[in-house]
Write a structure and sequence with these properties.
heterodimer, A: 242 residues, alpha+beta, four-stranded mixed β-sheet, 12 helices, globular, B: 242 residues, 7% strand
Chain lengths: 242, 242
């Protein structure tokens, strides 16, 4: 029986889940939830997840949110190749370490930059973002990328060692978010560049590009967006990012 | 095994509690945060990110409490009761879901309230602006509501009938704002009942031992004022208040 995946590919964690499902031939059905149209606030989705965030999974009666939990569930249930989440205790710990760290680091900083500087706040909500805040956001992202290179990669091909794992998958989709905003994240970072190429090759360029199609075309669409639809999220967004 | 800890820190308490609760012997290495010991050269060699907790098992060094907890649980799985980190697919997914969600929700919000109440006045030399405090408390309330409505529902513990590592991680975060005098349990019967069950499952004595220093947080300002490194620490703390 196919699992249902509630996704919006503009969202980083939705992309890691879809890439994982497709790469591993996990039988799944995608249910699109358009964040820009506020579909996460609809009655239907509320029954799937009280938290009203994507991605969400439904497997029969069982619903699950949070991409790291979904990825681990799929890996365990469908017995995916070991390298995604190795049995070796220390390799596994390296992946868990990354999955934990990234929430308040790369994920937060990449999202903040997107929202504050490039997309949501100035373009859609028509609120000016002070220059110092933009600069601080870029600096924070830079700090996270430095740690990704210096602490999590070091001289290894992938975060856990010789093979791609859930950690690299979760990392790459987050790195792509500011890239989609036009930020040259890879400039002056040969190590990150080389890692990105390896991750893309391991996933398969076609699949990688397919899943990133939406976000890479989003800059134009955002300019046409009607900010009034986001009034309910406005306060939250300003609170979180300003 | 060495654990680098300061029990003022929530993730240090969850690691401390689990190790003690399941009987893993360890050497407690104090890293006094209010004295800025995390910025020492020595500690920088242990953890470049200068955060606690850190675990050192032989030559293997691991950061991030969630990773450390999972490492301990999996390393000792054969001698552990299953309920701490259940082998069942769906129950384990519930644990992972909570461990993921909490970073940017209960942990973030509880920490913010704590920092604004206990640390801000010392560093900034003035009370927190009311609006800032109100927003922080509001966010915390939302997270607590989600813990009750989505993660607990009408179950005794997050996963079901028995305590798991998810409850441990949750309770230590909640005590942080509580220690500053904010009674989050007032008017929340479900939360109070759950807290009592968690304390009982861990053992009241152990719970009290882990929370001894944070409950004395009233004396933190004095400790910090006496610290000659305070001027150096100020800019680092200021970043946390934004």
């Amino acid at each position: 029986m196919a699992v249902e995946l509630y996704l919006d590919l503009l969202s980083q964690p939705c992309r890691s889940v879809l890439i994982f499902a497709k790469k591993n031939n996990i039988p799944h059905e995608v249910r699109n939830i358009s964040l820009m149209d506020g579909e996460q606030y609809g009655d239907h989705f509320g029954k799937i997840s009280l938290i009203r965030k994507v991605p969400a999974l439904r497997d029969g009666d069982f619903t699950l949110t949070e991409s790291p939990a979904i990825l681990l569930y799929l890996a365990q249930k469908f017995q995916t190749p070991e390298h995604w989440y190795p049995a070796d205790l220390q390799q596994r710990a390296r992946i868990d370490e990354y999955l934990s760290w990234q929430h308040c680091a790369l994920r937060l900083h990449g999202s903040k930059l997107e929202t504050e500087t490039e997309l949501m706040i100035p373009e859609v909500l028509h609120v000016e973002v002070p220059k110092e805040k933009m600069e601080a956001a870029v600096e924070q992202l830079s700090g996270s990328l430095n740690l990704l290179e210096e602490k999590f990669l070091q001289d290894r091909p992938f975060i856990a060692g010789g093979h791609i794992s859930l950690a690299d998958l979760v990392a790459i989709v987050e790195v792509m978010q500011p890239v989609a905003c036009g930020l040259d994240v890879f400039g002056g970072r040969p190590k990150l560049n080389a890692w990105r190429d390896r991750v893309q090759a391991a996933i398969g360029k076609e699949l990688f590009d397919e899943v990133h199609q939406n976000i890479l075309g989003s800059q134009e669409r955002v300019k046409e967006m009607d900010g009034s639809m986001l009034e309910s999220s406005k306060a939250n967004m300003l609170n979180l990012f300003m | 095994m060495e654990l680098y800890l300061d029990l003022h820190s929530q993730p240090c308490r969850s690691v401390f509690l689990l190790a003690k609760a399941i009987g893993i012997p360890f050497e407690f290495k104090l890293v006094e945060l209010s004295a800025g010991q995390q910025y020492s050269e020595e500690f920088g060699k242990i953890n470049v990110m200068r955060k606690v907790p850190v675990m050192k098992d032989g030559s293997f060094v691991l950061t991030e409490s969630v990773a450390i907890l999972k490492y301990m649980l999996q390393k000792h799985s054969s001698s552990l009761a299953d309920h701490w980190y259940p082998a069942d697919l769906q129950q384990r997914a519930r644990v992972n879901e909570y461990l993921s969600w909490q970073h940017m929700n209960l942990r973030a919000h509880g920490s913010k309230v704590f920092l604004l109440k206990a640390v801000f006045p010392v560093i900034m030399g003035s009370e927190v602006p009311k609006e800032k405090m109100d927003t922080a408390v509001q966010d915390l309330n939302q997270s607590l509501q989600m813990l009750e409505d989505k993660f607990l529902q009408n179950k005794p513990f997050i996963v079901g009938d028995k305590i798991s590592v998810a409850d441990l991680v949750a309770i230590v975060e909640i005590i942080q704002p509580v220690a500053t005098g904010l009674d989050v349990f007032e008017g929340r019967q479900k939360l109070t009942a759950w807290r009592d069950r968690v304390k009982k499952a861990l053992g009241e004595k152990l719970f009290a031992e882990a929370h001894e220093v944070i409950m004395k947080v009233g004396s933190l300002p004095q400790q910090m004022q006496n610290n000659s490194n305070l001027e150096m620490l100020k800019p680092k703390f200021q970043k946390l208040f934004s």
